[in-house]
Amino acid sequence: SYVLTQPPSVSVDPGRTATITCGANNIKIKSVHWYHQRSGQAPVMVIYYDTTRPSGIPERFSASKSDNVATLTISRVEAGDEGDYYCQVWEADGDRFWMFGGGTKLTVL
Amino acid sequence: EVQLVESGGGLVQPGGSLRLSCLASGFTFDVYDMHWVRQAPGKGLEWVSGVGGRSGRTFYAPSVKGRFTISRDTVTNTLFLQVVSLRAEDSAVYYCARGAGSGSYPLEYWGRGTLVTVSS
Predict the structure, then answer these.
(1) DSSP 3-state percent helix, strand, coil across chain A (nearest 5)
(2) B53 in A contact zone (CB under 8 Å)
(3) pLDDT at position A34, please?
(4) Which of A27, A55, B18, B86 has the fewest CB atoms within 10 Å, i.e. the most exposed one?
(5) How many CB atoms lie within 10 A of CB A19?
(6) Beta bridge partners of A49
(7) Is B111 on the interface with A (CB under 8 A)?
(8) Rounded CA gap, A97 and A88, in Å?
(9) What chain A residue is nearest to B35 in terms of C-alpha separation?
(10) In this complex, which of A42, A48, A95 lies closest to B106 when CB atoms are compared?
(11) pLDDT tens per residue, range A23-77
């Protein structure tokens, strides 16, 4: 089955740039979505269809994709960016699945 | 404004059953896919089940297929998840989420979740 691999944790100083990766076989042919979940809250979509920001999401959030890795980049990191980030794809493998990566905990130092 | 409000969670014994509900408002309910996503304590997100907006077709993760049943009431704009034969590993916060359309769309809006605890 298709597996999305994320690093368990990323730490960054305020004002610096955070990079969170999502690795999977041939992810370049998938549409990748990203969600942010603050502690005790519901997830919020921050990027959809690889690079598009929903309204209300700051321009500091951007994303890209290569052959086997999708990347979420957060510029000028703020304390409010802390939390867990999940990548997600849709995989039609016999049945339809909305699959999530294991999540990356972003800590703002 | 899109709102999703879950209810129906609680403490249930192993082997027991529950019916989770999600009351939706602020959009045309039968146009959008609706989903259930769960999160075990301290763990990541796991997609559980979905129902197609226009088709009404249902989808399940292998881990719950045969035990969980998703349904919807388009009159009351309510999404349901009937869960039976519950196991300890089903303990989680269950989120209701709306797709961004009908098809392989991302999960655009989420409710606050309802907690299910399976324990004797």
Answers:
(1) 5, 50, 45
(2) no
(3) 98
(4) A55
(5) 14
(6) none
(7) yes
(8) 10
(9) A98
(10) A48
(11) 999 999 999 999 999 999 999 999 999 999 999 999 999 999 999 999 999 999 9
Going by DSSP bridges, is the β-strand pair A61-65/A104-108 parallel, antiparallel, or unpaired? unpaired
User: Which pLDDT tens digit goes with each residue over B12-41?
Assistant: 999 999 999 999 999 999 999 999 999 999
> Is residue B90 over pLDDT 70?
yes
Task: Match 């049945």 to its residue by tokens.
Answer: A95
DSSP-derived secondary structure letter, A13: -
The average confidence (pLDDT) of chain A is 95
As given in the structure block, the two tokens for residue A92 are 């039609």
Tens-digit pLDDT profile for residues A76-107: 999 999 999 999 998 877 666 889 999 999 99
Going by C-beta distance under 8 Å and a sequence separation of 6 or more, which residues neighbour residue A13? A77, A108, A109
Question: By CA distance, what is A8's nearest residue in B?
Answer: B44
Question: Coil, strand or helix: which one is B65?
Answer: strand
Q: How many CA atoms are closer than 13 Å to the CA of A83, on its beta-carbon side?
A: 19
Q: Are strands A104-108 and A9-12 parallel, antiparallel or unpaired?
A: parallel
Quickly count: other Cβ atoms within 10 Å of residue A61's Cβ.
18
Q: Cβ contact (<8 Å) for A45 and B107?
A: yes
